Amino acid sequence: MERDLPSDRFMELDAGDDDALLIQRIDSNEIIYCPPKRKYKLVGKYVMGDKLGEGSYGKVKECLDSTTLQRRAIKIMKRKTLRRIPNGDQNVQREIRLLRRLRHHNVISLYDVYHNEAKGKIYMVMEFCVTGLQEMLDRSKDKKLPIWQANKYFVQLVEGLEYLHSRGVVHKDIKPGNLLLTSDNMLKISDFGVAEQLDVLAGKDEITTSQGSPLFQPPEVAGGARVFSGFKVDVWSAGCTLYNLTSGKYPFEGENMFRLFENICEKPLVMPEELDPVLKTLLEGMLRKEPSERLSLNLVKSHDWCCKKHPRTEEEVSLGGDDDRHSISIVPYLRSNYYDSESEEELFTEHQLNESRNQAECKSEMSGTDLQETRGAHTKRRRRKPTSCISVKSITSCKQS
After folding, report:
1. Which H or E run contains 355?
2. Where is composition skewed (Basic residues) in this entry (predicted)?
3. CA dihedral sign, ordered 92, 98, 99, 101
């Protein structure tokens, strides 16, 4: 005899049983969640926090210096992952060597390096940044910045490059994705994995390779030149970056790598009509196809567009103040270690969880925030889904290098 069941229930019969198992849907208010426990963990003197982002080389987490209480970012890389990336381990070691020697307010700072031989991990403790230029472009309405804001960041980029070149360092991968920002709007040049230290005694800036992003490569690289000026490579990439910041476009594009490089070498530069004449002259000087005719950093720095104070005619693209990256993530881990035994367990329902997610999505849509993950050192922290507590093994041994 068949029984009619309400639409919110269904019946499942086991072929070997005469009894029917009834599964009933319950209200979301009756499903109770417990937020995951935050496992207190130390790497050297640094208290580990939430994940900021993840890239091909590894992940980046927030951390806190337990001696100075300063906020840092720690890049965590596995050696087995680096071995799968062409020149992966070499690039990391190169970046460590370079950053240890560099000290400038527009260059990312490296504070400590730890090696965990048992787990095959490398930890790079670096300056904490709240966002990057690429993330700001993605979040902006027209994928570009107001002229006055682009000017503010570009001048800092030129200062940072000027310092690098004075130390004989060619970055070779200048682009918005490698330009980070602190909470006080200080630009930091990051990602020195493909950078090159010149021979100071040689007195030349000649290099033979460039492994930077294709959209930002100059004609001499796209055309396969065997030897070329390293400093002029950075000038070209900085010009492409400025073009991108002010127009939301790239100076040269192509449907594939071959077409892109062909356009970079042969296609004439086309300026967006909305750019003012002074800015156009700067871009034309930085994006000259012949390296010897390209502006030097000194001429770029003294150009009228860089020296001029631009009025704030448009609203700035924010650093992302509504994002939870601006609130330190270490506190729950400290609370878990010192106070959890005395505090009441926080519980919430499925209904409350859904409401919270809906509010976050609406808020994101209204602010035009792009929630996709970004590569590199400092990217958006993933939203953690509430799950049961997962035990994290403590680090067996870390030695500082």
Report:
1. helix 350-367
2. 377-386
3. positive
Class of domain 133-307: mainly alpha
- From the list 331, 352, 252, the residue with the least C-alpha distance to 50 is 331
Closest CA relative to residue 149, chosen from 278, 286, 242: 242
Q: Taking 60 as the threshold, does the pLDDT of residue 126 lie above it?
A: yes
Name residue, tokens 């609406």. Answer: 362
CB neighbourhood size of 144 (10 A): 21
User: Among 114-118, 228-232, 395-399, where is mean pLDDT lowest?
Assistant: 395-399
Q: Which of 66, 61, 46 is nearest to 112 (CA)?
A: 46
pLDDT confidence of residue 53: 86
Find the radius of gyration of the CA atoms of the chain: 26
Least Cα distance to 178 among 379, 371, 319, 369 occurs for 379
Give burial (CB, 10 Å; 0-12/13-18/19+) of 111. Answer: middle
Exposure of 382 in the CB half-sphere (CA atoms within 13 A) = 12
| CA gap 132, 246 in Å, rounded | 16
Position 5 pLDDT exceeds 80: no
Question: Count of alpha carbons within 13 Å of 258, Cβ hemisphere only?
Answer: 0
Sign of CA dihedral 337, 341, 344, 349: positive
Amino acid at 119: K
**Global pTM value:** 0.77
Sketch the domain layout of the chain as residue ranges.
Answer: 42-129+327-336+360-400, 133-307
pLDDT-based confidence at residue 228 (cuts at 50, 70, 90): very high
pLDDT per position as a tens digit, 237-288: 999 999 999 999 999 999 999 999 999 999 999 999 999 999 999 999 999 9
pLDDT at 385: 47
Active site residues: 173
**Rounded distance between C-alpha atoms, residue 392 and residue 399, angstroms:** 20
The pLDDT mean for the chain works out to 84
Helix boundaries (H) for 217-330:
219-222, 230-247, 257-266, 277-286, 297-301, 304-307
Q: Is 75 annotated as a binding residue?
A: yes
